[in-house]
Design goal:
With about 900 residues, this protein is an alpha+beta fold. It contains 31 helices and 26 strands. A hairpin with a 5-residue loop joins strand 12 and strand 13 (about 590-595). Helix 15 (about 350-365) runs antiparallel to helix 16 (about 375-395). The longest helix is centred in the middle third of the chain and has 28 residues, at about 415-440.
Length: about 900
């Protein structure tokens, strides 16, 4: 038998799990075809049987590879099935296709969480009545509801509620790099979300469901809410928020600044329940159960008390898994601890990697879409990295007699523990670094050292005391309070240290999103460096690994951008707001506006615009322009200016209606950004044969003349025009019909290939004379999904349609990109969000005749998008509601 065969056979479970995961991964790019997937599975099975029957003992590798092919086919089928909507026609996801007022009857299936502003309720729906209907209809499926403040009635998991609410399918920002919120909810089996306008719209029918005894999950959620309420009542807010996170898996109560500090110092994983948490709990439970069992001499003579105590720990550990929310890291940790406990009980030696493979296989079998989430990948990559670091730790702890090479031997026990902790932390950081960059675009430079301080305070001090408090709570509330307060000192110390470390400068890197191929190359080289035996090959591998790490910091796109002769315009989906990135030839970049609807818990710059820029491989902007000081055009730019360091901030010279705009200008000055007000005809940015020019605004100019008409902030917008040879785009901000007509009368050179619709397509803008003068081939509306009755207004849509102008909206198509190689033609792509995956649908235009040629295919009016795809289609023009 060959060496490869032995490796495959000895690690068959791991390779099967990897093959199964590859099949799930392939389910996204490949078209959904159950018959094709079943054919692949059947073919692989038949080939495997034939190989076993006719090959005898030979060709082991072929048989193993065929078995792995079955795993790939099984993963493909499983992944495709999980991506579809539930088959039940009465499932609530089939009944709610748009925003609707309803009365919902169902069971509260999770504890109520509160983030200081709003509460979250998860309802297992049973009956539904849509507004306008007379009768209730049976339904099923989970619904996530938001409520401003807290419910006035004390509802508990298991309570049956009648709720008046507004439901809709979940939506997210459809841009490359954006967080896929619908997919995140889908992992939790939530397909519909909603909002409750008032606590008075919640009526409790009964405290229990009335359908028999509560399930284990319901009992766990009740206990979870009871413990959470007890923590809130007996600890200060910051300590209670941390204890809720590390004990119950609920981070909603942690203040935003505390979460940001933990992210900045690389200690965010401590707030997620993981293997260390369950190992501490398992050790505590073992000590208690072992102590109790040893009180009986009969049991000592009858059974092996240690093995029995180890096995009995599994029951409370399984219950705690539900108590902690049942997230991926918790399930992975519970499965691994359970396998270790079973192995010890049966006197079987357990190995880390088979246990890890088994845990991954179980999770993927139950939740296949978790493969695409950060939690799954970070959890398993961290444990694998620590496992690979264990041989080095063994050298540190070997005795002098055992050391033949006389290297890496540390005599001092404190030094051993310190170095061991540092090696484990460094290993976990290296193993999770590329994945962290891919999902979060940040990497802590002090994480390995910060963990040596923060982790003992939380995991070795506060956490064991918290577990003791939970175990004592049913018997003595005063004793439980004592342990919680004692553990609170550890949490307070961790908070103090975290705040100090986060206040230091240059503690983290914010980097562009690495390409998957680069990540794969990093891990391959990393494994070759660890397992390679040839010294020369390891040296070459080390050099290649260093070069790969450099490409994480300086992407290849940044190195070659100066040679680019093409231009691209990206209309970013920011909801009800506006933000456009223009990439000019020679690597020049300008961001025009960057704002959206206001929320105290949401920064559109950090959550939407910056991830988009990083996904494009962009580290730096040359300039930022704010057309006018309205929040939906600038409220995300603080973060952009801080992390993308533009040289110039162009503004219209007028103050806004909020102090936030003054804060933005102060932020720009503090970051060394030059503030400038462009003159009429001034070029804001030039790159190769392309430029962005300020056309001038009659309203803004006349404002300085006494006795003239007073104009609103919208009407004083900068009016910018991009031009690359024959390809051009007009950005008029939020100007009104009045300013549009002034521009037409003054014969301003407005003619452009593409128009960003003024004021998001409102009725008071987009006048016919203005549209005739611009004469665009395509109009784009930057709007959100919840105000389509007004943006774009039906009258605006009608005008655009009557003039034969094609229309695209970010609310329907997501991010829209226009690309031109030389300015004589351009190509349009839209982020279609096919099943919420990152897929782009292309619409090509041959524009040799110039902007007046409108023969290129666009989605036509009246086309209904398929419910499953949600995408746009070639050859037809999308009708905007």
């Amino acid at each position: 038998m060959s060496r490869i065969s032995k490796i495959l056979i000895h690690n068959l479970l791991a390779f099967w799990t990897i093959a199964f995961g590859c099949g799930i991964w392939l389910s996204r790019p490949l078209p959904t075809s159950p018959s094709l997937s079943l054919l692949l599975l059947l073919s692989a099975s038949i080939l495997t049987i034939l190989a076993i029957v006719f090959n005898g003992s030979g060709r082991t590798n072929s048989r193993i590879l065929l078995v792995l092919l079955i795993a790939v086919a099984a993963g493909l089928i499983h992944g495709q099935r999980s991506s579809l909507k539930p088959a039940d026609p009465n499932h609530i996801s089939h009944l709610i296709n748009l925003q609707q007022e309803v009365v919902l009857i169902g069971e509260l299936c999770e504890m109520v969480t509160f983030n200081g502003d709003q509460s979250t309720l998860v309802i297992d729906s049973q009956l539904l009545r849509i507004r306008g209907e007379q009768d209730f209809r049976s339904t099923s499926g989970k619904v996530q509801l938001k409520l401003k403040g807290k419910p006035t009635t004390a509802v508990r998991p298991g309570s049956r509620l009648t709720i008046r609410c507004r439901l809709r399918p979940p939506s997210g920002f459809r841009n490359p790099g954006s967080f896929d919120y619908p997919a995140f909810l889908k992992e939790k089996s939530i397909h519909v979300v909603g909002r409750i306008r008032s606590p008075l719209h919640i009526y409790q029918l009964s405290s229990e469901t009335g359908y028999g005894p509560p399930s284990l999950i319901t009992f766990a959620e009740k206990s979870r809410q009871h413990i959470g309420n007890f923590i809130d009542q007996n600890l200060p807010p910051q300590q209670s928020g941390l204890y809720r996170a590390v004990l119950l898996g609920d981070r909603s109560a942690i203040p935003d600044n505390v979460l940001e500090n933990f992210k900045k110092i690389g200690c965010m994983h401590i707030l997620a329940i993981s293997g260390l948490h369950l190992s501490i709990l398992a050790g505590l439970l073992f000590c208690i159960i072992y102590y109790l069992l040893r009180r009986s001499e009969h049991l000592i003579l009858l059974v092996d008390v240690k093995k029995t105590a180890t096995f009995l720990c599994l029951v409370p550990l399984i219950f705690y898994t539900f108590l902690a929310g049942g997230n991926t890291p918790v399930i992975r940790s519970m499965l691994m601890v359970a396998l270790a406990a079973i192995g010890l009980s049966l006197s079987q030696r357990s190995s880390l990697f088979p246990a890890l493979a088994f845990a991954a296989l179980i999770i993927l079998a139950v939740q296949p879409q978790s493969l695409f989430g950060a939690s799954f990948l970070l959890s398993f990559s961290a444990v694998i990295s620590i496992g690979l670091a264990l041989p080095l730790l063994a050298k540190l702890f070997q005795s002098k007699e055992e050391d033949n090479s006389r290297t890496l031997v540390v005599k001092s026990r404190p030094a051993r523990w310190l170095i061991s902790g540092l090696i484990i932390s460094l290993g976990a950081t290296l193993g999770t670094g590329p994945i962290t960059l891919y999902f979060f675009n940040r990497l802590s430079l002090i994480g390995p050292f910060a963990n040596l301080i923060i982790e003992p305070l939380i995991c070795l001090w506060a956490l064991p005391l918290g577990f003791c408090a939970i175990l004592l709570l049913p018997f003595s509330s005063s004793g439980s309070t004592f342990f919680f307060n004692l553990g609170g000192y550890g949490l307070e110390a961790a908070l103090t240290c975290g705040n100090f470390l986060a206040s230091m400068t240059h503690t983290e890197l914010r980097l562009p999103t690495p390409e998957p191929l680069l990540i794969a190359g990093f891990y391959l080289l990393f494994l070759l460096l660890i397992f390679g035996r040839n010294s020369k090959l390891r040296k070459v591998t080390a050099l290649l690994l260093a070069a790969t790490c450099l490409l994480f910091v300086i992407p290849l796109s940044e190195l070659v951008k100066f040679k680019s002769s093409s231009s691209r315009i990206h209309f970013i989906d920011v909801g009800q707001g506006s933000s456009t990135l223009i990439e000019l030839p020679a690597g020049k970049r300008i961001l025009i506006d960057g704002g959206s609807g206001y929320s105290s818990h949401f920064d559109v710059g950090e959550s939407v615009i910056a991830p988009f820029l990083w996904d494009m491989g962009i580290k730096r902007l040359d300039a930022v322009a704010v057309t006018h000081p309205d929040g939906d055009h600038y409220n995300g730019l603080d973060f952009v200016i801080e992390h993308f360091h533009p040289e110039t901030l162009w503004v219209n010279g007028f103050s806004g209606r909020s102090t936030d705009y003054d804060t933005l200008l102060k932020k720009a000055r503090a970051e060394g950004v030059e503030l400038r007000v462009p003159q009429k005809g001034e070029r804001l940015l030039v790159g190769g044969a392309a430029e962005v020019v300020n056309l001038g605004n009659p309203a803004a100019v006349n404002e300085h003349t006494s006795g003239t008409q007073r104009y609103s902030s919208n009407e004083k917008s900068l009016i910018l025009r991009f031009n690359h040879n024959g390809f051009s785009c007009l950005f008029p901000g939020d100007i009104s019909r009045t300013v549009e007509l002034k521009l037409v009368r003054k014969k301003t050179p407005l003619k452009s290939t593409v128009l960003l619709s003024p004021h998001h397509g409102s009725k008071g803008s987009n006048s016919i004379p203005f549209l005739n003068d611009v004469d665009p081939a395509l109009t784009i509306v930057s709007n959100g999904p919840f105000r389509k009755k007004y943006f774009p207004h039906p009258q605006t849509v009608s005008r655009i349609d009557n003039l034969g102008i094609n229309l695209l909206t970010t609310a329907d198509q997501g991010a829209i990109t226009l690309a031109s190689e030389n300015g004589s033609d351009f190509r349009t792509t839209t982020f279609t969000g096919l099943d919420q995956s990152r897929q782009l649908t292309s619409i090509a235009r041959s524009d040799s005749a110039g902007p007046d040629n409108r023969s290129f295919p666009f989605p036509a009016k009246g086309f209904q998008q398929p419910a499953e795809s949600g995408g746009c289609c070639e050859g037809v023009k999308v009708q905007t509601p």
